[in-house]
């Protein structure tokens, strides 16, 4: 892997964004999806990101996940600059340190619930026996033990999102990125998923960044970020965060 940057980082910061911009080229000319974003994401935080359509929420999530690179500025994960990391190292970073939860669940349709969770562990090179045991334990934590051998089409939407949550947290990532994880769920199921996200964030000390249009979901954040026109309009901590041990 490439050597980590020696640049200082904010105390207790998991990720630091400095002057980050992302520009896309369209037929009508360049479009700034993000411009001059400065943001510090603390270790173990539950961060909610809101803003109108086109404000840059999805672009921010993509940059945090190392799925795209900034046009300008710097993104650091602890002491490592992601914007200059070679592609192979960036892919390894995503595989080992990040988990993803999408609005559409993104489960493999021909794999059972337990096999979908195991897949994340297989990608992290966990051996077969250990990953089956861990996957079953995770499904128990999201109250799906009885559905471990069911295919996605045999599960309700809420159950599918629970499987997706178990998969995202399976490899004990440092950060889970959630893109509208309650967007396809009714209010009761949405609350259940938010409760699970909060619980796993708290118990596992895993940072979560969640993009949402829901005011109720946004209110769950310990840090609430509002985007407007590709810029941070507000970043308000809801409470003093506990100190988490480095992992």
| Global Rg | 18 Å
- Major sheet size, sense and barrel closure: 6 strands, mixed
User: Going across the major beta sheet, what is the strand order?
Assistant: 6-7-8-3-9-10
Average pLDDT, all residues: 88
What portion of the residues fall into strands of 2 or more residues?
Answer: 25-35%
Q: Can you tell me the residue ranges where pLDDT is under 50 for at least 5 consecutive residues? A: 1-9, 239-247
| β-strand number | 10
The H/E string reads EEEHEEHEHHHEHEHEE
Structural class designation: alpha/beta
Helix content range of the residues, please?
A: 25-40%
- Shape, per Cα inertia axes: globular
Distance between the termini: 18 Å
What's this model, at a glance?
By secondary structure, the protein is an alpha/beta fold. Helix content is 32%, strand content 28%.
Explain this structure.
The chain has 247 residues and is an alpha/beta fold. Helices cover 32% and strands 28% of the residues. It contains seven helices and ten strands. The protein has helices spanning 57-64, 87-97, 113-123, 128-141, 157-169, 187-204, 215-218, and strands spanning 13-26, 29-42, 46-50, 72-77, 80-81, 98-102, 175-179, 207-211, 223-228, 231-237. The chain has a six-stranded mixed beta sheet with strand order 6-7-8-3-9-10, with helices on both faces. A four-stranded antiparallel beta sheet has the order 2-1-4-5, covered by helices on one side. Strand 9 (223-228) and strand 10 form a beta hairpin. Helix 3 (113-123) crosses helix 4 (128-141), helix 4 (128-141) crosses helix 5 (157-169) and helix 5 runs parallel beside helix 6. The longest helix has 18 residues, at 187-204. The relative contact order is 0.19. The model is unreliable at 1-9 and 239-247 (pLDDT under 50).
């Amino acid at each position: 892997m490439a050597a980590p940057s020696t640049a200082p980082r904010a105390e207790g910061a998991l990720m630091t964004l400095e002057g980050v911009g992302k520009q896309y080229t369209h037929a009508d000319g360049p479009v700034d999806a993000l411009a001059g974003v400065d943001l510090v994401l603390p270790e173990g935080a539950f961060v909610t990101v809101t803003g109108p359509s086109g404000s840059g929420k999805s672009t921010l999530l993509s940059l945090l996940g190392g799925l795209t690179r900034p046009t300008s500025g710097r993104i650091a994960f602890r002491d490592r600059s992601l914007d200059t990391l070679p592609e192979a190292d960036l892919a390894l970073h995503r595989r080992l340190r990040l988990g993803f939860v999408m609005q559409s669940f993104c489960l493999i349709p021909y794999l059972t619930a337990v096999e979908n969770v195991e897949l994340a562990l297989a990608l992290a090179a966990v051996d077969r026996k250990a990953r089956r045991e861990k996957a079953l334990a995770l499904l128990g934590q999201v109250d799906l033990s009885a559905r471990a051998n069911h295919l996605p089409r045999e599960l309700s939407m809420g159950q599918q999102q629970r499987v997706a949550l178990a998969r995202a947290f399976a490899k004990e990532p440092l950060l889970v990125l959630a893109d509208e994880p309650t967007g396809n769920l009714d209010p009761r199921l949405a609350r259940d998923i938010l409760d699970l996200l909060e619980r796993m964030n708290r118990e596992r000390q895993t940072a979560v960044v969640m993009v949402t249009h829901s005011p109720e979901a946004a209110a769950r954040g310990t840090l609430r970020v509002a985007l407007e026109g590709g810029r941070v309009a507000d970043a308000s901590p809801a409470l003093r965060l506990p100190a988490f041990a480095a992992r």
